[in-house]
Design goal:
The structure is a single chain. This protein is α/β, with parallel strands linked by helices. The protein contains ten helices and eleven strands. Helix 7 links the parallel strand 5 and strand 6. The longest helix is centred in the N-terminal third of the chain and has 21 residues. The termini are far apart.
């Protein structure tokens, strides 16, 4: 069996193309979608991630500002900045780059973001809307997974989706999304670190979504013939003295057994940034309604 590669680069290009008319319409109304990115400290991975996001916004002619704060910033100071951004009409979306320093309560800060500017979809109000099937902002990575599957005509209707990982960022929201009648209409099994006999469930999956954060954990023995695999993992490992990025799926192992898979890198990753752009455009559009 030839395993099709589901390129996130190709899917993201299609998404950006589809946004052009929406962005131009907003600009005709004197609205330029704007994102405020808040970065605390100097975590190298976060630096790269935020830089890539801001570069993409700039390339699309959208507004973006980076608010950089010292590692030792107090929670009170950070909350004050969030409140200022909530009331700043230049910014339709607020991105709080995680993780935050240990002395800051991340939940308090995330919950302080205006839910109508919560383009990451992490605020309890947005999580609640998603859970009842009326989403406003869907977390970017799960939203990107849905887009990439639709882009490559992978039908979820009636399929068995197995998700490995239950985080509020990926695992839990994608399990809800794929089960919603208007989005996926799939039967969903959510597995996690406490699941006994994980292979029993994963080998039943028509579509397996691996979001557990363990390098190349899922190999061919975990999947059935013809399964579609979505690899959410981004893990840095050392191989032969060199650093390499790998996913949660042992991709070489599953080639020829899986019908399709998202590569790492250039799979789900580009879709996360694309959906941040789309959510920011959506936030600006809400001003017109």
């Amino acid at each position: 069996m030839d395993t099709a590669i589901l390129s996130g680069l190709d899917a993201s290009k299609a998404l950006y193309k589809s946004l052009e008319d929406r962005i131009n319409y907003l600009k005709d109304k004197n609205i330029t979608p704007g994102l405020a990115a808040v970065l605390v400290g100097n975590n190298p991975a976060s630096e790269i991630y935020v830089r890539n996001k801001t570069k993409k916004f700039d390339s699309l002619g959208l507004k973006t500002n980076l608010f950089r704060l010292d590692e030792n910033v107090s929670e009170k100071e950070l909350l004050s900045l969030i409140q200022d951004l909530n009331s700043n009409n230049d910014f339709h979306g607020i991105l709080l780059q995680l993780p935050l320093p240990k002395h800051v309560n991340s939940e308090n800060v995330l919950n302080a973001i205006d839910p109508t500017k919560d383009v990451d979809g992490f605020h309890p109000e947005n999580a609640g809307l998603l859970s009842i099937g009326k989403p406003r902002f869907i977390p970017c990575t799960p939203k990107g997974i849905i887009y990439i599957l639709k882009h490559f005509n992978i039908d979820l209707n009636g399929k068995h989706v197995v998700v490995i990982g239950r985080s509020n960022i990926v695992g839990r929201p994608i399990s809800i999304l794929t089960s919603l009648k208007k989005i996926g209409n799939a039967t969903v099994t959510l597995c996690h670190s406490g699941t006994k006999d994980l292979k029993f469930f994963s080998k039943q999956a028509d579509i397996l979504i691996a979001a557990l954060g363990s390098p190349e954990f899922v190999d061919a023995s975990y999947i059935k013939e013809g399964a579609c695999l979505v690899d959410v993992g981004i893990n840095r490992v050392e191989r032969n003295g060199k650093s390499k990025i790998v996913g949660d799926i042992d991709q070489e192992s599953v080639l020829g057994k899986a019908s399709s898979l998202t590569p790492v890198p250039k799979g789900v990753g580009p879709m996360t940034i694309a959906m941040l752009v789309e959510n920011t455009v959506l936030s600006a559009e809400l001003l017109l309604n």
